[in-house]
Amino acid sequence: MQLLWLSSGAFLGWSLGANDASNIFGTAVATRAVKFITAASLMSIFLIAGALIEGSSGLETIRNLSTQNLRGAFIITFAAACTTTLMTVVRMPVSTSQAVVGAILGSGFAAGSPSFRGLGKVVLCWIGTPIGALLLAVIAYTVLGAIFNRFGSNILRINALVKAGLIFAGCYGSYALGANNVANATGVFVGLELSGVTITPVIAALIGSVGMGIGVFTYSRRVMMTVGKGLVPLESFSALVGIVAQAATVHLYAMVGVPVSASQAIVGAVMGIGLVKGIKSIDTRMLMRIVTAWLCTPVIAAIFAFGLYYFMLPFKAQ
Predict the structure, then answer these.
(1) Total-model pTM
(2) Do the domain assignments include residue 215?
(3) What is the total count of domains within the chain?
(4) Which of 189, 210, 247, 263 is the most buried (most CB within 10 A)?
């Protein structure tokens, strides 16, 4: 029975990989600069590495937002996973961080003891993520454009350089995603005991990141196309700029120890590119759909968790 509690963390990791992780290489795959199988393979390797090397700070941040037993941790992760999966099915890139925090608050209200400690810092980082990525994208577009212009009109050389840059930036973005977002999948389990074994940050990071890798392979292509083609039409160079800005943003918050959304970062970066290329290139209808999905995510997760809390009452918690 105890293994069942932990399975929800793996499920959330899968849904995170299918939604958030897809955005690391989304623009590159959508422009056909990098094949999907190549992107998925590299992402899986580097996000696991990032989770194991730098994921501990974010794991502790999520863990400290709420004190849970195994049943409570299951409720939070399962509700967040259902919410993220729902948004993935409708092809909307959303924030797993918001889903997890919404689920934490929903289960807290159901238990009569909601906790808001540390929430202000997390919310500020949520707001700063797309804005910061937008600004970095504008800077990166200008700087990288000046560098690439030095190669003149040698199209073959420029294309080869862009493709190499996309792969390198994607690997870095995958590493940053693993370091930052693995906390969303299994952070609430850190410190709990399962069959007499305490779940350490390393164990939590391994379970969450492996689930993320599986999600990338099995169900990420749909959200890739929404971000890569649906918001702003991107060529290969713009795809490179987007990944660089997204990766730098997510890694910055990983070092701060606050899990943020890779989806929000890449959408902010793509918007920045759209501003440089001309505001008319942004699909405002698609943008409003994405923003609406962001706003709905924590609310839906909270409702799921609230209802699941009462459904799970008969089950013994540790």
Answers:
(1) 0.85
(2) yes
(3) 1
(4) 263
